[in-house]
Amino acid sequence: MGFSPEGWGALMLSAALMSVAVAASGFLVGLMFGSAVCWARLSKYASARLLADAYATVLRGVPDLLVIYLLYFGGSSVLSHFAAMFGSQGFVSAPTFATGALAIGCVSGAYQSEVLRGAFLAIHSGQMEAGRAYGMSSSLLLRRIIAPQLVRYAIPGMENVWQLVLKESALISVIGLVELMRQSAVGSGSTHQPFYFYATAALLYLAISSVTSWGFRRVEAHAFRGVRRA
Question: Using an 8 Å Cβ cutoff, are 58 and 135 in contact?
């Protein structure tokens, strides 16, 4: 596991960075989905609430691995069909990184929507009523009152979602993305030392988790500065 030309250290670290990249991309995609679903679930329109509830129910009820397969093979089928229209033959594979980030985003968006909705409901309604009484527009109310407190209350839940996303990134190896689990499988197969490689992968995952958890705690402490907590 050294860093010599024959060592696997550099490859394992590169794969760990790939895991972080796909997890972070999926988390951001999920944040966009989650924000939209949260808005829909709080909407006064019944149709929007129904669609948002259906999205959250389906994505939380279907196994993550199945979502990855559906997006990968579904996307590959669409690309192959379009390629055939221009005379290309054979199977066209969907980009693994983009597919993995989208799959993680779809699943995590369902959980992030619940975190954001809970954070919004934690804001005292009297503050928004006071803002409207002062003549604040909806955009100013969002910027001055809702958004800062929404972020404050959502941070602890978002940390939990991030930990789930980081673990879900290991599933992307099934479609060929060379992230940490995939590289561990390649290394263990080449050297016939599976325990050594998977133990190294576990330590790298724990290191990533610990560093990012520390970062979330720092952000949470900054967000709650000056606020008395029970």
Answer: no
The closest of 205, 172, 36 to 98, measured between CA atoms, is 172
Running along the chain, 230 residues long, what does each successive block of 10 average in pLDDT? Answer: 80 94 96 94 91 93 94 91 81 90 95 93 84 82 84 92 94 92 92 92 95 93 75
Amino acid at 208: I
Is residue 63 assigned to a domain? yes
User: What pTM was estimated for this model as a whole?
Assistant: 0.91
Beta-carbon neighbour count of residue 182 at 10 Å? 21
Domain that holds residue 159: 26-178
Q: How many domains does the chain have?
A: 1
Environment class of 128 (CB within 10 Å of its CB; exposed 0-12, middle 13-18, buried 19+):
middle
Q: Which residue has the tokens 């561990």?
A: 184
CA 90/CA 83 separation, integer angstroms: 9
CA 84, CA 163: separation in Å to the nearest integer? 41
Q: Residue 110's domain is classified under what CATH number?
A: 1.10.3720.10
The Cα–Cα gap between 122 and 125 comes to 9
